[in-house]
Amino acid sequence: xxxxxxxxxxxxxxxxxxxxxxxxxxxxxxxxxxxxxxxxxxxxxxxxxxxxxxxxxxxxxxxxxxxxxxxxxxxxxxxxxxx
Length: 83
Known about the structure:
The protein has one helix spanning 40-52, and strands at 7-17, 25-35, 57-66. It is α+β, with helices and mostly antiparallel strands. The protein has one domain (7-65).
């Protein structure tokens, strides 16, 4: 297994309750490079959130796109010359 396998751009959509109005949900979008499937960077951020911020987490939705993947090969159909 490669060390870089699973490394990519992670986007988290974080819904949290507003401290002054707990019946309202607020949205925060977080994005960073992280390792799937454990997401240690995101877990560290969420641990910080729980420890230091007043807004209680409601839901976290994650999207992840691997940056390093096998090479893609495709044949060239033709060559075009300009001038």
